Each structure stands twice: as C-alpha cells, then as structure tokens.
Amino acid sequence: MYRIALFLAIMLAFMVPANADDWIAAKLRGNVFQLVDSAWQPLHRNEIVSDSRPIRTAFNGSVSFERGEETIQLGPNTEIRIHDRNGQNFTTVEETSGTVTIEAEVQNVQHFAVETPFLAAVVKGTRFTVKSTSRGAWVAVERGHVAVEDLHSRNHVTISAGQTAEVVGDSDGTTLTVKGHGKLPKVLNEDGSPVLTKQELKALEKAAKDPEKAAEKAAKEAKKAAEKDAKEAEKAAEKAAKEAEKAAKEAEKEKSDSSGKDDGDKKKKK
What we know:
Blueprint: H1 2-14, E1 23-29, E2 32-36, E3 39-42, E4 48-49, E5 55-57, E6 62-67, E7 70-74, E8 79-84, E9 91-103, E10 112-115, E11 119-123, E12 127-132, E13 136-143, E14 145-150, E15 156-160, E16 163-170, E17 173-180, H2 198-269
Parallel strand pairs: 9-10
Antiparallel strand pairs: 1-4, 1-6, 2-3, 2-5, 5-8, 6-7, 7-9, 8-9, 9-12, 10-11, 11-14, 12-13, 13-16, 14-15, 16-17
C-alpha cells in the first residue's frame, strides 16, 4: 500500500492543471526522458513539459506532445527543447538530433519553427518532418509549405508537399539542395538572387572555356593551313625550277643541234 500511495503522490505532483498553451506528453512509448536539475528523469504520459526543458528519447522511445490541434512527434534517438515566446503565439523546436514531425495549425502568420545546427524551417500551417544528424539536416513536407533556411550560408527556399530540402556540411561549407515532385523552387541567397547549382556552375565553366578552346582550335587549324600552303608553294617552286631547268636544257640542245647543222652546211659548200 505504501508503494501504491507513493506512486500516486508522485503522479499527482506531475499532473498539474494544463493551460491552453502547455505542451502535454499525450502519447508515449518506450523510454523518454527530461532533464531536471542536471539529471535525466523519466517522462510520463500526460505530463506537462516545461518551457525550454531538454527532452530525449532512447533508441526504443517515441513521444507525441499535443497542444490543442497541434502536435510535436519525436522519433527514437531524438533530443529537443520546446521554446514558446512569452506573449506571442510562436513556438520554436530546437532539435539537436533525431527526427521530429510537426502538425501545425493553419494560420495566416508564421508561428512555428524547427531549428537544427544546420537549418531552420518556418511554417504557417502544415505537416512536415525534420531530421538532424552531425553532418546535416533535411525537411520533408507532407502538406502546406515550409520556408527552409541554411543557417550557415543564409541561402533559403520555400518547398511544398512532396518536396524535401537538405543542408549538408563539408570542409567547403554547407549546401542547400531541393528534391521531390513537381516544379522545384529555386534556392535564393541572402539578397534574394538565385543560387546556381553545381550542374549550372559546371555548365557556365564549360561555356567560359569553350571560346578559349575554339580560339586554340582555330589557331591550330590556321597554322596547319599555313604549313600546308607553304609546302604546296615549295613544291610549286621546285616544280617550276625543274621545268625551267628542263626548258633550259632543251634550249641548249636545240642550240647545239642548230650549230652542228650550220657547220655541216659550210663544209658542203667548200
């Protein structure tokens, strides 16, 4: 009886009245923890989550926080904090790692955001999933639209249902790319100008190199043609020289024959 009474006392301590803006752990499975006084303690179903308190799921854990018609679902191996702005209808989920799915209420203003070390996803009303790792993060949209910003390069894009935006980091920095169905939107830089993809950059580099290659090819062809013309001119000169030599020999022979004939005629007259 003592154990049962103690358990009920603990549960009653957690079950304080919920306000309209409180996030409640409505569905919970496996091991889910919250950081209280520098120690990870189990989170229980129907418990209210304090603002900015770290929440973590184990490899077998998942939890769904609800507030009215909105939900924040955490997959296994996920760690987050939920921040609500005082006096403002704006919620930010700070996602350190793992997978988070948001079901946001449709509104005419942006009021929900998920931030990872690599990107920030801001929505008006939709359902989308954010996955974060040590190398990057991606956003997949099921309904509505999501504005995604690369927190390092400040490049941004707005994607719709069936599309994903991914930010991957490497030694050269981060890259924001878009994949999915339909016409894919252009990624824009901080000034609002389109960001060229790697394929487009390669095409521009190739186009820039083509005139150089064309000029080099033309120079080689011109040199080849000049060398050909020079050889043909040399052959023509040799041919002309041979023909001139031949004509000179023939003329010399005719002169010799004519001189011999004249000498014969003189002898006959004598």
